């Protein structure tokens, strides 16, 4: 308890973090554009806008001439941003009013862009930096990459809020007391998991429920579990490194219905190896309390093995009196595979290997489980459930090999049923030495019995364990149970001196650099050293001391939060470069959604990261962790995350629910974006391309021949009506209603997510388009839509939306091609507000590339900046967007090069700053780790959080 209170104190003291408190300062500029406004802009506004919004009129509480002078009008960015939006989308003037020419619209919009949103390029404002906690994805990835723990602890955290379309925005990522409690609990559990020492070679693979895929029947993820709703199978994959006996442990639950429990079978590579039924029931609230643990052993061969769970007895009773017990379902939380079950030399966790730089914190160790022994004599000896059971006197033996001569520590974990006057007694023979050990603990409680052997020879040795004092009288029975045996040594083996002060400072500094993404400050190092000293006084092991320090670091805001950057040097004109550790952290959480690796930190410590920035960006994108940019950036910008959540009408579109089609739709779009990114192709291919990625399932759905197997491959689309992201089935289904296509949703997705010109919200009290249930449906959707558009309040918005949406009417609600809608020919023609005509998605795609590339590029850049900075954009950021657009055009819109430009931009490289003292990093000691320590540098004014 004393150590636990000390860990809490250190967590709190490490959580003193700085936040920027400096407001931007903008120099007063000249009255730009005044002459253009008076001569050209104002006449257009007076002619087409002031009837309702000027000259004393303020329809909708919006007047454009309420400023006392031009300077005040020019500074009203909010008003002009609204004018820009409604004029660019042609929402205003209303359709029944006189309209400005395209040239007049462009004139007004250019003046707004050039003059209202002008920013002095000699005094760029990098924007406000928000202290931003890691979201769930970043937390899991950081734990995975830094601590080598892949248990995804954040899956039990509350969902992250989103802002500006993303879940990594600092201003919305709050920290509630409940979440802080979960962070502290996770720190304790993850630290223990990261710092393990055990026999080497024992493979473990934890497959969570959502890693299983439904291969037959219907099912989906629920509450972090995979649920089967009908008879069918869910399949996961594990890779076995060496053949042998493995233990498989399942955590199962069920929804009950009828008289039977949910029955299941477990299959490996298609062959049934185990079956049973689930008694426990999930009530929708207590997940952990509803889980039933099932474990069994089986022999597995080397290589990839499929592990399937089959639901055998689905049941549904719509008339059951308890509505919560009408549908029987099978739920899987996780599957754990461990083995092979045999003796191995000691190993320590990958994190410990890295932290200790190859030194061991524990000598060599062999583990022998109770049922690994061989029965020697005694009819009452049984080997079962991982232990040796002595129901009467008898013995077991096991041969083992020692790596070298020496004395070894032997530890037996055993328990007993006590009876009679004596305690249960074991006899242990190792080599020529025999020891007698009494089990003194009460019934069923494990006890560790240990002794040090005389000198043993390297090579083969034998251990014999026997139960020697069986007793039975009047129903009272004395029995013994051998759980496992550890042989550790030889004694005196060289191990890491974790508690030695110089070495302790070394490993704490090394750990802190990775956990805090910057060198540990001297004050924090002293606090953590105090924790190590206290752990030693309390008799903690080396392993426990490291785990306590790690736990304290994980509970610190310096681990949980990104932000409060440090400047790299002199401050000028209200901004300064962030130092290279801050840059490394920004870079890694942008591209990897995870912490910087050793190479990034090494370059930052040497002050060489900026000089190698382009090469590092390309390395990171090419790394397997670069998939995070597709999964988390494209997954939110283009809504790819939502594809698997779609639920088209099951009776109308049964094909959608067969096999892996829904998952394959998402995979196509992800691989398509990732290919453009990794191959540094033009981002304009998102709008139009002549290829995509398919497997056999998706190819059959598309009607494309020649694609075989479940593996995705690049496929030419020449001669097909598809191309680019917008004609991929996942996007088409995502932007449809469950029963039909939706030109409004498809148009809105294109305008808002792809072109960054969102339509205004629908007027109030306007009914949504729809058909009366049960009424006869006649004509195409487009024909039925015309009546809805006839409402004057709807027509202006739909004139903007509909041409884009109806271009995709040849694709049905799940993305299949069709020539007819309701037995009539599909009309996919359209006309843009600028006058260009097209027929169908193929012609629209070419228009988008030719005429809308500026809008698309601006939208892509704005989203990259929002995602990489973890904040929304403000008016000063328009300067950087324009600069990045110019660079994108010069670089032929290549996506990887554009990301390099974003990383080199002012808001990514700099911070608002004033001169202040930064806390000094820890001073080097004679045992300083290889990671460099930066000198004290100017830092922002800070406030205690």
Structure notes:
The chain is α+β, with helices and mostly antiparallel strands and 945 residues long. Among the domains are: 34-116, no CATH class; 201-339, Jelly Rolls; 363-489, Galactose-binding domain-like (Jelly Rolls, Sandwich); 741-766 and 778-809 and 817-843, no CATH class. Strands 3, 5, 6, 8, 11, 13 and 14 form a seven-stranded antiparallel sheet that branches. Strands 16, 18, 19, 21, 24, 26 and 27 form a seven-stranded antiparallel sheet that branches. A five-stranded antiparallel sheet has the order 4-7-12-9-10, with no helix packed on it. The longest helix is centred in the N-terminal third of the chain and has 18 residues, at 177-194. Mean pLDDT is 86; it is low at 17-29 and 915-945.
In the CATH hierarchy, what is the superfamily of the domain at 201-339? Answer: Galactose-binding domain-like
Rounded to the nearest angstrom, the radius of gyration is 34 Å
Just give the CATH class of the domain at 201-339: Mainly Beta
Q: Decide which structural class fits the backbone.
A: alpha+beta
Number of strands: 36
For the record, the CATH architecture of the domain at 201-339 stands as: Sandwich
Q: Percent range for helical residues? A: 25-40%
Predict the CATH topology of the domain at 201-339.
Jelly Rolls
Q: Helical stretch count?
A: 28
Approximately what portion of the residues adopt beta-strand conformation? 15-25%
Gross geometry: globular
How many angstroms does the end-to-end distance come to? 27 Å
Low-confidence stretches: 17-29, 915-945
Q: What kind of sheet is the major sheet? A: 7 strands, antiparallel
The average pLDDT is 86
């Amino acid at each position: 308890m004393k150590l636990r209170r000390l860990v809490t104190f250190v967590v709190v003291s490490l959580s003193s973090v700085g936040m920027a408190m400096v407001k931007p300062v903008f120099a007063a500029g000249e009255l730009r554009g005044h002459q253009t406004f008076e001569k050209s802009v104002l006449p257009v506004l007076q002619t087409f806008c002031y009837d309702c919004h000027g000259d004393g009129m303020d329809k909708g509480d919006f007047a454009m001439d309420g400023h006392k002078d031009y300077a005040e009008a020019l500074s009203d960015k909010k008003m002009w941003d609204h004018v820009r939006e409604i004029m660019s989308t042609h929402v205003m003037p209303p359709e029944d009013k006189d309209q400005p020419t395209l040239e007049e619209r462009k004139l007004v919009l250019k003046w707004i862009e050039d003059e209202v949103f002008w920013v002095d390029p000699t005094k760029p404002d990098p924007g406000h930096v928000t202290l931003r906690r890691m979201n769930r994805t970043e937390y899991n990835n950081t734990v995975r990459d830094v601590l080598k723990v892949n248990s995804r602890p954040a899956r039990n955290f509350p969902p992250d809020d989103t802002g500006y379309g993303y879940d990594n925005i600092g201003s919305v990522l709050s920290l509630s007391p409940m979440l802080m409690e979960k962070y502290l609990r996770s720190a304790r559990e993850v630290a223990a998991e990261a710092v393990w020492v055990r026999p080497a070679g024992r493979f473990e693979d934890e497959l969570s429920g959502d890693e299983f895929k439904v291969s037959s029947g219907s099912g989906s993820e629920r509450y972090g579990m995979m649920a089967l709703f009908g008879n069918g199978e869910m399949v996961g994959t594990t890779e076995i490194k060496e053949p042998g006996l493995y233990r498989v442990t399942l955590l199962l639950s069920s929804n009950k219905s009828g008289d039977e429990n949910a029955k299941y079978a477990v299959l490996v590579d298609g062959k049934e190896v185990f079956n049973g039924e689930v008694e426990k029931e999930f009530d929708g609230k207590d997940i952990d309390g509803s889980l039933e643990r099932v474990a069994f052993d089986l022999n597995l061969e080397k290589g990839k093995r499929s592990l399937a769970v089959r639901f055998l007895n689905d049941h549904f009773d719509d008339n059951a009196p308890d509505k919560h017990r009408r549908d029987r379902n099978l739920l899987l939380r996780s599957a754990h595979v461990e083995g092979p079950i045999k003796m191995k030399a000691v190993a320590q966790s990958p994190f410990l290997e890295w932290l200790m730089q190859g030194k061991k914190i524990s000598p060599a160790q062999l583990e022998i489980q109770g049922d690994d022994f061989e029965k020697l004599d005694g009819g009452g000896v049984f080997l079962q459930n991982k232990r040796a059971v002595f129901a009467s006197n008898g013995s077991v033996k096991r041969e083992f090999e020692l790596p070298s001569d020496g004395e070894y520590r032997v530890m037996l974990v055993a328990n007993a049923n006590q009876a009679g006057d004596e305690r249960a007694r074991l006899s242990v023979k190792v080599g020529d030495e025999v020891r007698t050990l009494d089990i003194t603990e009460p019934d069923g409680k494990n006890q560790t019995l240990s002794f040090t052997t005389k000198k043993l020879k390297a090579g083969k040795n034998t251990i014999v364990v026997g139960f020697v004092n069986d007793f039975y009288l009047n129903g009272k029975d004395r029995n013994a149970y051998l759980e496992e045996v550890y042989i550790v040594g030889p004694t005196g083996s060289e191990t890491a001196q974790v508690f030695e002060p110089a070495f302790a400072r070394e490993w704490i500094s090394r750990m802190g650099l990775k956990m805090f993404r910057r060198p540990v400050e001297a004050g924090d190092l002293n606090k953590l050293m105090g924790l190590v000293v206290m752990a030693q006084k309390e008799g903690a092991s080396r392993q426990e001391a490291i785990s306590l320090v790690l736990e304290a670091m994980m509970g610190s805001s310096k681990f949980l939060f990104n932000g409060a950057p440090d400047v790299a040097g002199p401050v000028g004109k209200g901004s300064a470069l962030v130092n290279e550790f801050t840059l490394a952290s920004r870079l890694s959480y942008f591209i990897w959604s995870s912490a910087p690796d050793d190479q990034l930190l090494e370059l930052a410590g040497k002050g060489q990261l900026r000089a190698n920035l382009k090469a590092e960006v390309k390395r990171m994108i090419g790394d397997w962790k670069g998939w995070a940019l597709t999964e988390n950036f494209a997954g939110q910008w283009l809504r790819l995350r939502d594809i698997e959540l779609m639920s088209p009408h099951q009776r109308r579109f049964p094909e959608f629910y067969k096999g892996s089609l829904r998952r394959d739709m998402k995979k196509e779009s992800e691989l398509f974006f990732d290919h453009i990114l990794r191959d540094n192709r033009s981002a304009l291919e998102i709008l139009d391309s002549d290829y995509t990625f398919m497997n056999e399932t998706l190819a059959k759905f598309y009607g494309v021949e020649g694609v075989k197997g479940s593996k995705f491959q690049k496929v030419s689309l020449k001669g097909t009506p598809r191309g680019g992201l917008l004609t991929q089935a996942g996007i088409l289904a995502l932007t449809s209603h469950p029963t039909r296509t939706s030109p409004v949703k498809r148009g809105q997705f294109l305008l808002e997510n792809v072109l960054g010109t969102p339509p205004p919200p629908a007027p109030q009290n306007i009914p949504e388009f729809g058909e009366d249930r049960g009424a006869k449906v006649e004509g195409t959707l487009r024909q039925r839509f015309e009546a809805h558009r006839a409402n004057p309040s709807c027509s202006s918005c739909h004139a903007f939306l509909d041409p884009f949406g109806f271009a995709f009417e040849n694709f049905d609600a799940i993305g299949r091609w069709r020539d007819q809608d309701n037995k009539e020919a599909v009309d996919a023609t359209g006309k843009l507000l600028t006058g260009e005509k097209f027929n169908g998605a193929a012609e629209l795609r070419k228009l988008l590339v030719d005429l809308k590339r500026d809008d698309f590029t601006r939208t892509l850049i704005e989203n990259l900046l929002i995602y990489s900075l973890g904040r929304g954009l403000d008016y000063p950021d328009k300067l950087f967007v324009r600069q990045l657009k110019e660079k994108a055009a010069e670089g032929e819109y290549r996506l990887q090069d554009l990301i390099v430009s974003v990383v080199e931009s002012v808001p990514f490289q700099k911070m608002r700053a004033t001169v202040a003292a930064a806390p000094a990093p820890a001073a080097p000691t004679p045992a300083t780790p290889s990671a460099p320590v930066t000198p004290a540098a100017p830092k922002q004014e800070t406030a205690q959080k």
